[in-house]
Each structure stands twice: as structure tokens, then as C-alpha cells.
Amino acid sequence: MTQGTGHGENGDRDRSSEEAALSERLGKLDQRLSELRDQRIKTEQPAGDGEDRAARASAMALGFRLSSELVAGVVVGAGIGWGFDRLLSTSPFGFIVFLLLGFVAGVVNVVRTAGAGQDRRGGS
């Protein structure tokens, strides 16, 4: 029986040394994986990318707003001119006059909106 007990202790030592070696290898692997993840993140996302993306989205939203205001002014002016032409039978004149007025109104709205956007950015 004493031999069996001695053999068991030796087996436990071998098993604990194997577990220690596996633990060490696992730790090294985890460290290497962390380094590779950090390198991948650095190459995929340059510093300040979140701020740059937000600024780009804000500028794009402002651009869409300005263009839609210009187009809306022209469309509304053309619609009113077409309506006056149909109502008063002044075929192309009402359409042309109100189309130009709509264009001017659209440009004024764009300048007003862009100016307000510049004031907000300059004050910050």
C-alpha cells in the first residue's frame, strides 16, 4: 500500500506540472491574441475616427437640408406659377415668374440656413 500511495503522489506531481505548463501556454496564447487584437483595432480605426465620422455625418445632414430647401423653393414656386397660369390663363408667364421667385426664395433660405450654421460653429 505504501507503494500505491507513493505512485499516486508522483502522478499528482506530474499532473500538476502538466497543468502548470498548460496554464503557462494558455497565458502566453491569451497575451498574443490580445496583442493581435490591439494591432487589428489600430489598423482598422485610426485615432479620432469617431469624431471624424460624426463630423462627416453632420456635414452631410446639413448638405441634404440645404439642397432640399433649394429644391423645395423651386418646386413650390413652379407649382404656384402653374396654378396661376391654369386659373388666369396666362400660359407661360405665371410659371416663369413664380419659378424665378421660388428659386430666389430657395437661395435666400439656403443662405440663411448656412449662415446660421456658421454662427453655431464659430461660437463653439
UniProtKB/TrEMBL annotation:
Region (Disordered): 1-22, 35-54
Transmembrane segments: 62-84, 90-111
Alphabetical keyword list: Membrane, Transmembrane, Transmembrane helix
Biased segments, Basic and acidic residues type: 9-18
Entries under Pfam families matching the protein: ATPase_gene1
Protein name in the entry: ATP synthase protein I
Native source species: Bradyrhizobium ottawaense
